[in-house]
Give the backbone structure.
Amino acid sequence: MSLMKSILATLLTLFCLVNHAYPQNPSTREMDRINWMEFAEFVPEKINTVLLPTGTLEPHGVINNGADNTAPFAMAKDLADKLNALIAPTLNYGITGSMANYPGAFQISEEAYAPFIRDILKGLARNGFKNIIILNGHGGGQTAVLQQVAEKVSNELGVRTLVINWWTYASDVTMEVFKEDGGHAGLNETAYIQAIDPSLVHKERYNPNQATAYPQNRAWSAVPFPSSIGLYQEGQGYPNFDQNQADEYFRKVNDKVLKLIQDTIAKWDLAGI
């Protein structure tokens, strides 16, 4: 019995030493925080998926101007372990559009944005990532550019790309949790940010008159858009600042996005592409 205990103790010690020398998980999931030697130990042999958060700086009602960056980065941090992925640095500047003239907003032209995002995707591919997942936090013209560039890079380099507009993909979750539609800086986006960091939500500054419903069928157009809260449906989507609903929404949105990524990678693998 004592011999058996001694053998088991030796094996346990060896296991711990090997596990310490060759960790199963990186010390961080964030690419800008990892050391280059550790990166080489994991990519691509142990990790071949990367999450790239993209957004912009523009007004968002009573939440932070960088909400389009805050949301996808928080999502990436929540999903990285579950996907065995690394997180690329967030691309914080984007194609802002009709809110570019608001204080603190930035506008990057499509002519500058497209080649920049192309080189980022190519750099991720060159570093050994097979699955490049773009968690996009900003819509408008930026979505089309991301989709077009991702398609070209995928076809050119043989990597696999997925572009996700989380608020659109999770629109059914918005209806499930809130029983109504959302909007830009509306009920859903404000709740998502509130779940991440309530200090970024300034309820004391809220005025319902700050919201305007987006025109249906392009019936009218105004630049700058007259409100920093844009409602998808007239009379729906006003922020309610309910913390319990915010936490529920965050969890359900992330679960839905996680399943999409997992299913897409599994089907890529099944197809052998």
